[in-house]
Amino acid sequence: MRTETVEITGHLMDSGILSRVLDDIREYDGDYVIDRFDVGHDAGDISRAVISVSAEDDEALQRLLMRLQTRGVNQVDPGEAEVSVCEQDGVFPDGFYSSTNLETEVRLNGSWVLVDNPEMDCGLVVDDSGATARVHTLPMADVKAGMKVVSGASGIKVRVPISTREEGGFGFMESIVSSEKPQAVLVRQVADGMRQAKEAGKKVLWVGGPGVVHTGAAPAMVELVKAGYVDVLFAGNALATHDIEAALYGTSLGVDLAMGQGVEHGHEHHIRAINTIRKAGSIKAAVDQGVLTGGIMHALVTQGKRFVLVGSVRDDGPLPDVHTDVIEGQRAMRAELADVGYCVMVATMLHSVATGNILPASIPLVCVDINPATVTKLADRGSSQARGIVTDVGLFLEQLAVELVPDHRRR
Amino acid sequence: MRTETVEITGHLMDSGILSRVLDDIREYDGDYVIDRFDVGHDAGDISRAVISVSAEDDEALQRLLMRLQTRGVNQVDPGEAEVSVCEQDGVFPDGFYSSTNLETEVRLNGSWVLVDNPEMDCGLVVDDSGATARVHTLPMADVKAGMKVVSGASGIKVRVPISTREEGGFGFMESIVSSEKPQAVLVRQVADGMRQAKEAGKKVLWVGGPGVVHTGAAPAMVELVKAGYVDVLFAGNALATHDIEAALYGTSLGVDLAMGQGVEHGHEHHIRAINTIRKAGSIKAAVDQGVLTGGIMHALVTQGKRFVLVGSVRDDGPLPDVHTDVIEGQRAMRAELADVGYCVMVATMLHSVATGNILPASIPLVCVDINPATVTKLADRGSSQARGIVTDVGLFLEQLAVELVPDHRRR
Amino acid sequence: MRTETVEITGHLMDSGILSRVLDDIREYDGDYVIDRFDVGHDAGDISRAVISVSAEDDEALQRLLMRLQTRGVNQVDPGEAEVSVCEQDGVFPDGFYSSTNLETEVRLNGSWVLVDNPEMDCGLVVDDSGATARVHTLPMADVKAGMKVVSGASGIKVRVPISTREEGGFGFMESIVSSEKPQAVLVRQVADGMRQAKEAGKKVLWVGGPGVVHTGAAPAMVELVKAGYVDVLFAGNALATHDIEAALYGTSLGVDLAMGQGVEHGHEHHIRAINTIRKAGSIKAAVDQGVLTGGIMHALVTQGKRFVLVGSVRDDGPLPDVHTDVIEGQRAMRAELADVGYCVMVATMLHSVATGNILPASIPLVCVDINPATVTKLADRGSSQARGIVTDVGLFLEQLAVELVPDHRRR
Amino acid sequence: MRTETVEITGHLMDSGILSRVLDDIREYDGDYVIDRFDVGHDAGDISRAVISVSAEDDEALQRLLMRLQTRGVNQVDPGEAEVSVCEQDGVFPDGFYSSTNLETEVRLNGSWVLVDNPEMDCGLVVDDSGATARVHTLPMADVKAGMKVVSGASGIKVRVPISTREEGGFGFMESIVSSEKPQAVLVRQVADGMRQAKEAGKKVLWVGGPGVVHTGAAPAMVELVKAGYVDVLFAGNALATHDIEAALYGTSLGVDLAMGQGVEHGHEHHIRAINTIRKAGSIKAAVDQGVLTGGIMHALVTQGKRFVLVGSVRDDGPLPDVHTDVIEGQRAMRAELADVGYCVMVATMLHSVATGNILPASIPLVCVDINPATVTKLADRGSSQARGIVTDVGLFLEQLAVELVPDHRRR
């Protein structure tokens, strides 16, 4: 039996975090003794718990400690980080430290080094080639033989984002998802979050699925692009194709957007739309050639905004801009994360989870979908900062445009 | 083997109705031969099919013929209606004709008599006490011994409402339900339907569940009441209680409507709200006494509008206005159907199905819910005229108020 | 500002209960100071928190204290219960104590009196006519002028059921709902729970919806009735009607159970089945007369088991056994609760919530539905002991019969 | 206005196909006159309709004709196919014929040539290098400059699979999806379908999502592999990872499969499982090295069965066997389709739609999911032969193993 003393600090009393920590210990077949519990007496106070956790052997203990760090639990005496050398490209050493999406520091040679670009389920690569050591996250696929990677849970500290619930700011919910919320208030809160991000000089990242087009929200989204509230869009082949199909033929998977008469599917329109863009060479080329003259993708191109389209196995075509290699696609997405200050995910489970996987926990995150399962899944996968809004995507974006675009008029 | 010749007329080619008729025959273990099929050659033309249907014996055939009448299929030679006398209160004679919600005529003594108030799953009661015979629908629970009731399928003709799909009007969908529709267009169509009903001097019937209050849509609904677009409301104890709870305490099942912070449930507020109204004697009395000063129920009372609240087994209290006997409640609902020209069902499966059960097929019907199952269920129960809109109730009603109430301003 | 000191004892560290208590205080606009927190050091230890809670005035404080009691939070110095006299039939005095479903004691004249039949959202009626005072819960509708009812939160103690999570027994989940669970294990746990209840001489209560019949599970359920695992059934008109319809005509809302070919709906079969039973006089009479010879209702009658059918506003007919007055129906349900030791709810939201409303928290409760929302709703309404299983009802009951009925053979 | 005469033959009366054809014409802004309609008089008879369809110009007409062919509608006088030469790699000529998943013939030089491997949304590539011309489908991404591709709708005939509904065989439903079906009957029908495919010397193709593992169905699936009912598996990184994680650590995303106690997510186990397989080099290598000793993937390897894993943007790792390029992945999937005689899709929307995209309509297809939306989406995307079963995946596979594996015993 091996034991380590850990601590956790924060609004422990009212966040339910402690029960999750103890659940984790149980799940990993560990045991615990609560050594101290300094309770914040008043509602706004910080509490601190010191807990001795035990596991069968050192390997089990190290893994349990890594797990607890995803909750913001640190070792009282973290010691020095242990570093191993990778022996194979694309393979971490056994016992590698699996990273969290929290702000992380690593103790190397007695100094705490802040980890660049926090991301969950990565390795921590130590670069000591310069005067001062640096540490950054790296996904498994990108690691190379010879790289130095942190092993075990020693010498690591994480910091949980400060919850602003008590401060009247944007209150993150922890997986509280419901369609039974006053939706107009939620729209306003998202609008406020975007405004604050922009005022702070940050970028707003959108992640969207084809439902954005199917629900007739493309015009609202175009206005949001033009008003500067869409700096980057992550999507798949489907959103871009249906948007372009609608621009070229006035249909989206056969839904006649002007009349509101839906039909089953649109066979042939979408495949022809893709062929047209492939012929032009790229979405931008199609805009430049005057082939594509409207819609969300057109707005992004003409406004000089960024987009990353990553393919999936169900894609037709795909559009020439689509990354068909998903690992390449993930790299392209990571490259756009710098300076993102707000993220909104709309009508897509696949790309929402993909973005949640690479996003630091410090970035406010709202997930909007008519399907509660999408939002629940996101939170369950570790994006605990995610706020879920179960609502109609079309009406939500329409209302958001009313909030954010001064001269937005109802179509 | 007994055989009867039936016919069906209408847009048979493009409505899929014929395949449903043949499915019915199969389901009832019957057989058929298509004797004639006069096809409407052009898109707008009417088609007519003449079909010989057979079943094992006369009882089976009569039941199959009744079933086919729900599709608008009539006997070519309907003959005279057969009338039986009820022997027990609340029990129809064996072989009674089970009614449809379509416009129906019964042939008695050589004359066709139009049936009053079409309603499905009822008996047709013949009143020949006056100079001319009259026929009206009557639910099973209300029949009395000695009443004359139509038996078998002879002597009966039904007429399907004219589909206006081709005429560019309000196109009813047959169970086509999707959240992937341009929602703004659907909002406008509902607004148009309500306006047309009002212009025609008809009443607008609302059927609502507590989600109307939970989603923060009560203020929008209050404005719609004041603007005259809510003539009658059918609901249960829950909608009224949560509305009154919100008016008295600013909460609805614990959802703080001003802040958008939801909590699990509200225990105690709602039971106290009910007690308060019971003390006053009725919702109207509570308004008159100045106890209840806001919300949907208050608006209905002050605007002189009608409401029927029918209880369910899960009710607390209930409010004094609630019909605790469901059969009494159904009678109270039926009493409000005269002159209804448009019906919208919002966020309730129970009361939507209940209303669908008693509504003639001639009344346009829209069902709005975030849960696709609610809408599907309604259509499956026989309300084939129902149009389903899968969307967020809160945002939908907000948008509807924007469409219908000239000076509606966003909260 | 009024203040009271409360305490809570239990597995506070790992149940998340404390964060809910503090959420409640915030929701009621109260404030708190944590005076003491004695932490159970080891995993199985009991913790105890002493908290000073404040609210604006005495009324607000009393209501907050009542609210906290639903979480098992008691006043450190509860004092004597205050008793008020009802002035109107069916109306509690202002400030009445709204009961929880927990084991409750009331202090009267210096003695603690255990409350009979705990039920949430009721009043506590004091009967001091005998030698010793007695207290029992009473729903609002049943209170009479002159009755003595507890007011405010003083003089009341509640006790939360002992969680058996650590003891390896049947672990209740708190609203953890998922279709992604090893379903076979869950079936076995339900079977074990039923066996334990029967071995303890307790009754098994079933609450069922029509999905039991639609999914083809009626034969499995009949076997469970015969094997003695269904002592009482709570249901509506629909389950009984579709079961009887299937027994009489081999159909259930048009689903041909032998072939697995579903059709939309069954119009006419169900209304005729109801008429047949009404003619017989009751379900039992139909069995006695040889009219009804199979199905779930037949099995209940022939095995001498109990059932309570309560109507709803969407009912056709209804069957003669159905309570059409929902308040009468609730009374009939309450009358069957004595000695119930296990409750399983299958495929019904309406009757599940209704039963959850009247069931003491001490009775293990499992809710089985293919729709996650049903299970979530039940837990949100206060039945926090509910365990949810999201699965296919037909296959679940089939598997349950395999577990519980020795000679059960696959059809 | 351009006009063409088309015909359709089959069970037009009872399949609803004609109404869909006319809907398509309306959707494409076309017009029609029904020239002839030869009705099959008896229930089993074949009907034939001859329709003149018109569209604004030739391009619109050609596209409408292509659309109608997805319904099985052919030109009465199809003429000769028109062939264009591709000018760019990966781009079809404007006006290319967009293929269906139906059996297709192309008329070249007066002869009808059967198209190899029908697949929807592809081009038809003509290879006239040999003695006799051959035509095969090719997805857009794989076309090369210089290839000859069919343009327009002339010279093409399709044939709809013979519905066996009347013949008592495996009845395909057209998008009829319901959880309210007798599930045991549906299990048996799937078992029968698999047995028939095996008896005919055909392969059974499975498409699976991680829910197979989460619901505890892996042991049942392993038995089905061993019994020879899984010839090929299409899946993503998730199914394989969770299966391997469960085999290595006894967990799957943190669900403890033995105890049935679910937790939120499993962080760290799955990423370590992936690293372990990457270190081994491949799943087969891990089996050969004795690293992986159980689970579905192990069974496939040891039984010499095929699997194709295709990645998605949300993947961690991924496993070394995963195709990270989705277009490569589609090619790998296509390569396994030869001799597939039955396809079952379980608990995955992404890979089900992907497989539906490439599967000929002639292969029986069953989609099993607890979420109705998955099944609906599949049918809406053009896999009209899909039969949907909304049920619990874990219990379904358990029951399927009971049906198909003689010595299968309940765990």
TrEMBL record, chains A, B, C, D:
CDD domains in the record: SDH_N_domain
Give every Arginine dihydrolase ArgZ/ArgE-like C-terminal second subdomain domain span.
Answer: 189-400
User: Does the record carry Nucleotide-binding as a key word?
Assistant: yes
Q: Which domain of life is it from?
A: Bacteria
> Matching Pfam families, A to Z?
ArgZ-like_C_1st, ArgZ-like_C_2nd, Saccharop_dh_N
EC nos = 4.3.1.12
UniProt keyword annotation of DNA damage present: no
EC class of the enzyme, as a word? lyase
Q: Which residues form the Arginine dihydrolase ArgZ/ArgE-like C-terminal first subdomain domain?
A: 103-187
Keywords annotated in UniProt = Lyase, NAD, Nucleotide-binding
- What is the protein name given in its UniProt record? ornithine cyclodeaminase
Q: Which organism is it from?
A: Nocardioides pocheonensis
